[in-house]
């Protein structure tokens, strides 16, 4: 797993000449690029599912070798305002939290932290605008060369159908009914978890969080429950083997009808566009159109796709035990080649903590922009040294023993952090 403490925060004011960046990219990106093909399908019942497909993003503007792709599903509830707002702003907020001038490997290491900052900033901005109530759930997939990074809140899901027929889930379900750790976190932060009570005292339906009656513990844009319903995403980053693989991203309208294995099996052998349609068709056949159903299928195809597929392992349980491996950065290149040669998917990063101090890590205390200002790690506004509040100050969850150590937050983002951790009631402003 990538070490959070080993990553340093670089500020946007530290500029590197474009020519130098392009030269660096040309030298580092010698690996053959796979072909990416994708398809999308949906059936609408409430009109609250939205999606984003963007395949022309560039880490270094003007350099085609730095291109990466983003695929996302936004599942709105009680309206579509949050889903629309997030589709329009989340990606820019995430990219804005990544320091300028990074090479490919550094950029990938910075991405998990930037995803956390982007999710929290989007939620904070949406709520501050006082828009109509609209909870939404999201899975975002960012693909660069052979590396896949997935961030998610709620119950949308992303699965990987890898070589050999092994299906793995790259997201975590934040339904209170199924996630014991999230139930414990919500109650520890001041929320109550229970079922809906009817006349006579009988309890019905799934577990919900009160106030609000929400079935999920994480979302963006929710305004009628406590702030212990957090927008901090679960993030997983993996490196595919040279055999490639298929990714299926879908809203809960699919997963309420199909298991991960059923969805993967239903579309094997089909091109991406037809595969997405088949997954939606299978979900409707199984359960009917009871919710919006949206599916994106992404195929990562090796440059030489004429190679015969490797035979499935004799012992499935042993293969699954090896499917995800954590690596040390000291031997990253050697291990990567070995794992890729045997068709094993390599785990680079995984983190699901809801504590902002843990997710943002540590900065060196002297890190500043060239203008002499600090930068809020969430909303990216410039801060004078006297204005910044360390994300670790007063936090029992911090991995830092130095409360003056960065990253730093502005007052608004610090208030947001305190509310998410149950240190003050939701909606109470601190001067």
Please tally the β strands and state the result: 18
Structural class: alpha+beta
How is the main sheet built? 7 strands, mixed
Outline? globular
- DSSP strand (E) fraction? 15-25%
List SSEs in N-to-C order. HEEEHHEEEEHEEEEHHHEHEHEHEEEEH
Mean pLDDT figure: 79
Provide the low-confidence segments as ranges. Answer: 1-14, 306-342, 365-371, 426-431
C-alpha Rg, in Å? 22 Å
Our count of helices gives 11
**Approximately how much helix is present in the residues?**
25-40%
Note the gap between the termini: 39 Å
What secondary-structure arrangement, pairings included, does this model have?
Layout: H1 18-28, E1 35-43, E2 49-58, E3 67-77, H2 81-96, H3 104-128, E4 135-144, E5 147-153, E6 157-162, E7 167-169, H4 180-188, E8 192-197, E9 203-210, E10 234-239, E11 245-250, H5 252-255, H6 260-266, H7 272-287, E12 293-301, H8 316-323, E13 325-326, H9 332-341, E14 346-351, H10 356-360, E15 374-375, E16 382-383, E17 389-390, E18 408-409, H11 411-420
Parallel strand pairs: 13-14
Antiparallel strand pairs: 1-12, 2-3, 3-4, 4-5, 5-10, 6-7, 6-11, 8-9, 10-14, 11-12, 15-16, 17-18
